[in-house]
Amino acid sequence: xxxxxxxxxxxxxxxxxxxxxxxxxxxxxxxxxxxxxxxxxxxxxxxxxxxxxxxxxxxxxxxxxxxxxxxxxxxxxxxxxxxxxxxxxxxxxxxxxxxxxxxxxxxxxxxxxxxxxxxxxxxxxxxxxxxxxxxxxxxxxxxxxxxxxxxxxxxxxxxxxxxxxxxxxxxxxxxxxxxxxxxxxxxxxxxxxxxxxxxxxxxxxxxxxxxxxxxxxxxxxxxxxxxxxxxxxxxxxxxxxxxxxxxxxxxxxxxxxxxxxxxxxxxxxxxxxxxxxxxxxxxxxxxxxxxxxxxxxxxxxxxxxxxxxxxxxxxxxxxxxxxxxxxxxxxxxxxxxxxxxxxxxxxxxxxxxxxxxxxxxxxxxxxxxxxxxxxxxxxxxxxxxx
Length: 386
Fold this sequence. Notes:
The protein has helices at about 1-25, 145, 185-200, 290-295, 300-320, 360-370; strands at about 25-30, 55, 60-70, 80-100, 105-110, 115-120, 120-140, 150-160, 160-170, 175, 210, 220-225, 230-235, 240-250, 255-260, 265-275, 335-340, 380. By secondary structure, the chain is α+β, with helices and mostly antiparallel strands. The protein folds into 2 domains: about 40-150 and about 325-385, no CATH class; about 150-320, no CATH class. Strands 2, 3, 4, 5, 6, 7, 13, 14, 16, 17 and 18 form an 11-stranded mixed beta sheet that branches. The chain is globular, with a radius of gyration of 27 Å. The N and C termini lie far apart (about 100 Å). The relative contact order is 0.21.
């Protein structure tokens, strides 16, 4: 009887162990990084106060193009930041939108078909699109709250016989990653799809991966960055300019130095733009990741780590395409950042444009906005140059 009891107990334990093993291998769908949420709150920048109520008619889409111009002093520290934002409204219907940020001043930009509104820390647009409408604004930002979110840190150092420029990618941030048992063929397929989106300059698409069993979160967060394409020239009086071009990130160094020989004040002209993930998504020895693992096995953990890292970087890259927000969360956005050495001359404001005598639609827009806005107590609401 005792032998039978022991045998029955062993069978029960074995059955329990088998059930636990089966549960540990149960497939589950886990969402991969992208396209949102962003790893940090900014960019896009935010301002103080309550954001004005927004409305975009069904079928309307708004694309944003930004040129962020950063004046830096002789050490590389920003002393003025201006943004020229061009919004392209596609579709027919009404719109009423606000762009938030540490905004100091606003004026109408070249080619704009409407006059922008200006409320404390908010750029306002309202009107009707007959099919296509161009909205452009030149925006001066307050430097202290905006500068920490610029994608680059510059440092100019004077040395005997010249000047050294150090450029650093400042978009790095920690993110929580995860790991577990996956199917290499599925991860290879997801790597190929992510690579196609990156090379096409598209926002990374939502995707899931199948995990077999427990999904683990590593103790150490993953450090990611927005890859940046940086190019420009460093010049000293009477000398040939020193040209440079680099990609910072995407598995490559996050900083570099350039030295220019000579004396006098340095003249720096640099541009940076978010870049696709190319290096980390390039399949070794084949045209696709699917073909690569068909030739030689690659551990699923290694493929998964590369996939998660690349997708997080693409999300971070997308974040820096909107230094100021696109009012349409699903809109197509592009940004370029330009840095130039300019001596500081105290607070800088955008001059009011000359009147053209043709009137303005600012009053009409103001009436539209005032009819639907709830202004926070003590908030200031004005239309620029109206």
